[in-house]
Amino acid sequence: MLELDEAFYRDDVKLIVGVDEAGRGCLLGPVVAGAVILPRGFSHPLINDSKKLTEKQREEAYQIVINNAIAYGIGMCSPQEIDRMNILNASREAMMRAIRNMNHDFDLIVSDAMKMPDAGKPYVDLIKGDAKCSCIAAASILAKVTRDHICYELDKTYPQYQIAKHKGYVTALHVELLNKFGPIKEIYRFSYKPVKQSLNVQQKLF
Q1: For 14-70, how does the pLDDT look when each residue is reduced to its tens digit (9 = 90+)?
Q2: What digits encode the pLDDT tens for the residues 95-142?
Q3: Which CATH number fits domain 5-152: 2.120.10.90, 3.40.50.300, 1.10.1200.10, 3.30.420.10?
Q4: Where are the domains of the chain?
Q5: What is the DSSP letter of 8?
Q6: Rounded to whole angstroms, how far apart are CA atoms 20 and 132?
Q7: In whole angstroms, what is the distance from residue 38 CA to residue 146 CA?
């Protein structure tokens, strides 16, 4: 178990929910958040920062989390919501939706560096929390795998953008294809600079 989880349990803190998001820096698709309550003392070598796992390991870890969690939830904010409320607020809202979608009571929120003053419960925001707490790591795995699956579906609909390869992140290939084909109204985040710049290159909107 990542070492910090146990430090948060007290007589009045028996159920801890970890929250994290995936896709904050991407140019397209939703920002996706996971929320997870793990049993106290639960440990597994694959429950770690999702960025440190291979894709195959994340898929395996995803099943481990949903099979062992006391409760879990997924929340999302669409590209349109991101453009309207900005990515910080959209990430926070996605986390709140994930917590609500757990449909389970809890005593404390631990987040990956996200302040959550409107959550209605005590919270701790940890820098690099997904590398310190098992419940945040578990949430990061749910968020990442869920978002990757969304990207694979988008890739089937829009194969010319090769979304399965770059998952929406700012890569040279992605920017090249974005400039070539133009941003798609339903899936791109038009408040992001590379998307704005692509409009100067290619005005056509799908």
Answers
A1: 999 999 999 999 999 999 999 999 999 998 999 988 888 999 999 999 999 999 999
A2: 999 999 999 999 999 999 999 999 999 999 999 988 899 999 999 999
A3: 3.30.420.10
A4: 5-152, 155-201
A5: G
A6: 12
A7: 19
